[in-house]
């Protein structure tokens, strides 16, 4: 399979590249600066400058874009719109590294993690921006997208356990009552979805077993 990982030099992107390379996928790292990943093929280009030709012929594109400052938070929406526009009508899958704040905590799907009293105020603008982008993504019927939310505690330096539980739109807890996953285990789930998944135009979630 031929895939590309956008923002591959980031913490999540780098581990997704490594997992994909280790499992024999043909991986292109899309980066703005010098490549620091395990990928042998590199496209040095800003996400917003990517064209349809840049992504032509790929089986899947992983969007590992992230923005955290107040002035860049709207780019969660604009970056996703740009990627959807250039992948529109193609067979190439778009898999998005999502957030946990928009996961639902009730069966009616009216209350999200970010609505909870214990959700840190400092992360609320980010959660809102990512939830907005997800809402806009749900409207795209012309793109074969999959949005993968991590567990609530998404650990950049966490251990690679090698096992995870798949969930859907609601926050899933493991047998110990935890909502936790490492970036490394999230990368396993991402590559599994690329290879075996059929969650087209769906949001799924993952938590450590």
Distance between the termini: 27 Å
Q: How would you spell out the order of helices and strands?
A: EHEEEHEHEEEEHE
Strand order of the largest sheet: 3-2-1-4-5-6-10-8
| Named CATH topology | Rossmann fold
CATH architectural name: 3-Layer(aba) Sandwich
Describe this structure in words.
- One of its GO terms (molecular function) is oxidoreductase activity, acting on the CH-NH group of donors, NAD or NADP as acceptor.
- This is NAD(P)-binding domain-containing protein.
- Pfam families: NAD_binding_10.
- InterPro entries: NAD(P)-bd_dom, NAD(P)-bd_dom_sf, Polyketide_Oxido-like.
- It comes from Marvinbryantia formatexigens DSM 14469.
- With 209 residues, the chain is α/β, with parallel strands linked by helices.
- It has a single domain (2-208), classed as 3-Layer(aba) Sandwich (Rossmann fold).
- Helices cover 26% and strands 22% of the residues.
- It contains four helices and ten strands; from the N terminus they run E-H-E-E-E-H-E-H-E-E-E-E-H-E.
- It has helices spanning 11-22, 75-87, 124-138, 183-196, and strands at 2-6, 26-31, 41-44, 60-63, 93-97, 144-149, 153-155, 164-167, 180-182, 202-208.
- The strands form two sheets. The protein has an eight-stranded mixed beta sheet with strand order 3-2-1-4-5-6-10-8, sandwiched between helices.
- Helix 2 (75-87) links the parallel strand 4 (60-63) and strand 5 (93-97).
- The longest helix is centred in the middle third of the chain and has 15 residues, at 124-138.
- The protein is globular.
- The model has no long low-confidence stretch (mean pLDDT 97).
